[in-house]
Each structure stands twice: as structure tokens, then as C-alpha cells.
Write a sequence for this structure.
């Protein structure tokens, strides 16, 4: 929570604030969250991969988790249904809560007056990334180039957390790529539907 500044004033944070985000994200990464974030793909997959690389033991555990089934944790944690139920069988996997996704995106709040708050994040929240032209269905070389440049700029104190409007406008660069991702998703859904429901 940042207590100073108005909406129009530029936010300038010390480098230690990004390190604090990193520590908070590590604290959220229990096994079901790691599995869910990696399966989510997109920006969450990349952020979690970056965070996990700072801890070799945790990174290896994440690799192992990807080859296992869902972690049900005796009813705790978020689960999502990944396929339609069939013969009283549910197909579940680990999922993320909105608050977990916000922590992994580096979300913070800033006072912009006596009672007004602005939500900012170091990285785009998943829904913003998914609706942008950066989302092509796979993490591509342009995504990685953008990620590495932004990460370096953050580490050098050149980039700060942004609000949703700035993320939307900044991620519009590849707007036609979103159309390609939609076509790939629709074609994939048709193929899966054909082979999973009639096979």
C-alpha cells in the first residue's frame, strides 16, 4: 500500500519494492499454486518460472509437480473443472484464486486522495494479458523479449507498477496476434470436442 501521490503524479519506488514483491510471490507458491500457475500459461507461467529459478530446489519440485496429477489437499485450495463430467466422474486440476493471481502479478494499492485507491501491478494481471494481442496461445519470442526488457528496466528502476489502463494500452502493440490466438483456440476446441466426445 502506497500512501502518497495523486493519480497524475509519477510513482517512483525503490528497487527493494520489487524484491518485496518477489518475496510475497514466493510465499504464495505452495505446490497447488505452482502447478496451477504453470498450467495457466501466459504471463503467470512466465512470472512463476522466473520466481522459481531463484530457488533451485523449488524449481526442481515444480518440474516434478508438472508430471503428477492434481494436488487435492483434502479439499483445500482452488480447483477447476478442466473437462465436462462424464459418468459421474469430474476432471479437476489445480486452479488459482484471484488473490493468488494478483500477488503473482505484483499487485499493490496506491492512495490517490483521501479515500480513493488505485490498483497497480508490476506485471499485467492475467485477464489483461489474455485479452491483449500479446496472447498468442503460446509464449513466443516477442513475449520473451518484452518480458526480459521490462524485467531489466524494473531492476534498473526505470519501470514502475502500472494501472490497468496503462497495461491495456501498452499491450496493444500486437493487436492482430489476438485474432490468431482466437482462431487457434477455436480450432483446438473443435478438434478436442471431436476426439474427446466421440472417441
Amino acid at each position: 500500500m502506497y500512501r502518497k501521490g495523486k493519480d497524475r503524479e509519477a510513482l517512483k519506488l525503490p528497487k527493494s519494492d520489487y524484491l518485496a514483491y518477489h518475496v510475497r510471490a514466493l510465499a504464495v507458491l505452495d505446490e497447488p499454486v505452482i502447478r496451477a500457475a504453470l498450467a495457466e500459461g501466459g504471463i503467470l507461467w512466465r512470472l512463476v518460472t522466473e520466481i522459481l529459478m531463484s530457488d533451485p530446489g523449488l524449481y526442481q519440485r515444480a518440474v516434478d509437480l508438472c508430471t503428477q496429477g492434481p494436488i487435492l489437499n483434502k479439499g483445500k485450495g482452488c480447483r477447476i473443472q478442466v473437462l465436462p463430467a462424464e459418468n459421474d466422474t469430474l476432471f479437476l486440476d489445480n486452479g488459482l484464486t484471484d488473490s493468488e493471481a494478483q500477488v503473482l502479478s505484483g499487485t499493490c494499492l496506491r492512495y490517490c486522495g483521501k479515500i480513493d485507491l488505485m490498483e497497480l501491478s508490476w506485471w499485467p494481471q492475467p485477464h489483461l494479458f489474455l485479452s491483449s494481442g500479446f496472447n498468442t496461445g503460446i509464449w513466443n519470442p516477442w513475449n520473451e523479449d518484452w518480458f526480459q526488457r521490462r524485467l531489466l528496466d524494473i531492476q534498473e528502476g526505470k519501470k514502475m507498477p502500472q494501472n490497468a489502463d496503462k497495461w491495456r494500452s501498452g499491450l496493444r502493440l500486437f493487436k492482430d496476434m489476438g485474432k490468431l490466438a482466437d482462431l487457434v483456440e477455436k480450432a483446438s476446441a473443435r478438434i478436442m470436442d471431436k476426439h474427446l466426445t466421440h472417441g
